[in-house]
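User: Can you recover a sequence for this backbone? Please restate the input before giving your answer.

Assistant: Of course. Working from this structure:
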């Protein structure tokens, strides 16, 4: 809860959206406006309050934590707050260095032991309801693969 009693619906229910942006040296972020539009479409679909200028501010603040020379990924998460439904949103940015594979190394994949519901409206958006995906990846790694 925050000081006003609103609950974090992202934490409690997985209600939220995210975008992962590729950051090149010099803190260059290609396709920034495309990422903003995609998140705005998701926010409109789920009826989450959304501010493009607040999204851009979160990106700028996140970029400040990345050195000028670094290549990184920047995840911007739209947290959803409210009692009975979404009434407020906040952005959280998290930067991490890029970890690549050696050229020609490849990635070892395995089919997950379960299928996702192709009729789910969540599949059209990058939602924070990601547990199914992270579980499949953990399962694949336990099997000796990189991802499922």
């Amino acid at each position: 809860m925050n000081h006003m009693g609103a609950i974090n619906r992202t934490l409690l229910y997985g209600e939220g959206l995210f975008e992962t942006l590729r950051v090149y040296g010099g803190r260059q972020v290609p396709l920034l406006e495309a990422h903003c539009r995609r998140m705005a479409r998701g926010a409109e679909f789920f009826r989450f309050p959304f501010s493009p200028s607040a999204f851009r501010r979160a990106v700028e603040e996140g970029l400040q934590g990345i050195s000028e020379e670094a290549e990184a990924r920047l995840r911007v998460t739209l947290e959803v707050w409210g009692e009975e439904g979404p009434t407020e949103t906040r952005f959280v940015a998290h930067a991490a260095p890029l970890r690549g594979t050696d050229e020609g190394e490849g990635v070892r994949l395995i089919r997950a032991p379960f299928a996702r519901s192709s009729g789910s409206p969540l599949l059209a958006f990058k939602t924070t309801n990601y547990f199914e995906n992270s579980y499949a990846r953990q399962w694949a790694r336990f099997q000796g693969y990189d991802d499922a």
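That completes the design. DSSP finds four helices and three strands in the chain.
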